[in-house]
Amino acid sequence: MPHATNHPITDAAGAESELPQAVRALPVSVLDLATVRPEEGVRATFEASVALARDAERWGYTRYWFAEHHNMATVASSATAVLIGHIAEHTSTMRVGAGGIMLPNHSPLVIAEQFGTLETMYPGRIDLGLGRAPGGDMAMLRSLRREPHDSDRFPQDVAELQSLLGPERPGQEVRATPGTGTEVPLYILGSSLFGARLAAAMGLPYAFASHFAPAALVDAVTAYRTEYQPSEKHPEPYVIAGLNVFVADTDDEAADLHHAALRTMVTRLVRRGTELSEADADAILSSPAGDQVRTMLRYSAVGSPAALPEQVASFVTHAQADEVIVTSNTPTAQARHRSYELLAEALGLEARDA
């Protein structure tokens, strides 16, 4: 597992200082939302993901995850397992996976077969995070031939999937081929106490979506750690927390990236994709609706490399996190790429050989 070195970093005044204790040896991972920029298109989105994943591996990031979404013109990670395989093929050591698969949308057998196939092709590198939300709207659910109450069986579906990926049992009628015996690592994703308590009861790692749903972070992680039931594979609880990052060569440039992300969220969430001028978006950001958008991005690290270690360390302590998974919604793929490069340098991630 890649880890941070303890070499000195340079602060804004040019003085050398040690990395904060909370970020030394901290695993840092990437959540790629496969954002489609209208001027570039879907193919360019995939090409940018490959380029970022290859460099993220070299820079020392731990894992590279995609999230399942549907019926969203700006998100291209709908065929999540296919995209994971594409990235795994273009990398060699970094873990690749789902953060996550929205299990109520699927049969556990199909997911076991998909991820069993991935694990067989890329052994020891595949992660399977599982979420309970649909990853889209009601029209999408109808198109998938699903119902809102399908999420009620999430705990049972997780257990079934875990069994399908485990060793073959005597008398087992249904097997995942490939899948059986692959033991693909499972993670429970969530933004509420439900997922936290399920992960604790099943003895599984827990990933909290604090990058867009921050409200229950502390309560959920506390419940998870308090109620955790050790399992054979995971004797200790393990928390991954989501964090937005906007890093640039200067603090002002980073602030501009953060503000651009807020404008984008206004367009998507408040005006439902309606084209807005920057002035109109800023006007909404100054309103109560804008306050809601700002709250969604509450957990964001913004600044030049010198400003980042303390911000990330503060978040790690607050979230009681063992690992941070970062996402960066920037106006261009180039700005995103640079943001992750600077973050790796700021946190002293241990670079791998190319």
From TrEMBL:
Residues 29-315 form the Luciferase-like domain. Gene3D superfamilies: Luciferase-like domain. InterPro entries: Bact_Lucif_Oxidored (IPR050766), CmoO-like (IPR019949), Luciferase-like_dom (IPR011251), Luciferase-like_sf (IPR036661). Pfam families: Bac_luciferase (PF00296). To bacterial alkanal monooxygenase alpha and beta chains. This is LLM class flavin-dependent oxidoreductase. It comes from Georgenia halophila.
